[in-house]
Fold this protein.
Amino acid sequence: MQKNRILVVGIFVVDLSFYSSKLPISGETVIGRNYNIGPGGKGSNQCVAISRSGGEVSFIARIGNDDFGKMGIELYNKERISLEGLIISENDKTGSATIAIDDNGMNSIIVVPGASSGLTENMIDQKLNLFKNSSICLTGFEVPLEVTKHVLRIAKSNQLKTILNPAPYFDIDNETYKLVDYLTPNEHEASSLTGIKIKNHNDARVAGRKICELGVGTSIITLGEKGVLCTRGIDDYEGLYIPAFKLNNKVIDTVGAGDIFNGAFATAISNNICVEDALNFANKAASISVTKPGAALSSPYKDEINKY
């Protein structure tokens, strides 16, 4: 294996996406116009984004021995994602997510992790060779929190750079943040973490420094159509602001955009690209993805990203 490989620890689920003019409110039934069944799960989406953007990736995840699980295996074979880290359960079902998407591309999501919830620290320990043969570890909060912490500890003990996408947001101890080289929350997650309501990139500057005060190396707050604000340590008062990358194409579906951003960013960092250029690369990848339907399968290829 190449030493600049990226190791992702996360989940695979099958997305059931429903498209309608508006998102339903509590108790409301909305007639939709279309639906799609496809691969999802933040970790799995990130793996596809890494592979398509030119990175080498391994994936540690737990799936069921069922039709949904087979969909995942077929995806990884097609997308050149290593199967070595997959753990297949005979007793638990592969997870699923239901996603409602409106005409503006906005969404609401319910995720049932299924077999992914059974991922344990011991299972991670059995995959130590994947850590030893990687240079970057990307993980998040869809797997059990104790597993996330364990993954970060192992990654740092093996001198890997760590990227933590704190989604969906949960409160964790400050010691864990000290294991994180790059924290990549969106504005809602960053607001939950810092207590600062983020409406613009100036708010994100303040929040970014508070995140770095927790011990995080670099804070990268994604702001959707308002761009990205990167804070490179507690003394970075100005921050590095990257405006949103604008395309002429209509926004169709924002599901998975953050995952594509994280995957493309990891690819760039694994190739020793500087942070500013890595952010621009990731920003373009995410922007392209929202002009296509689906999560993982909306991820653009390296040549498409570099075209802009």
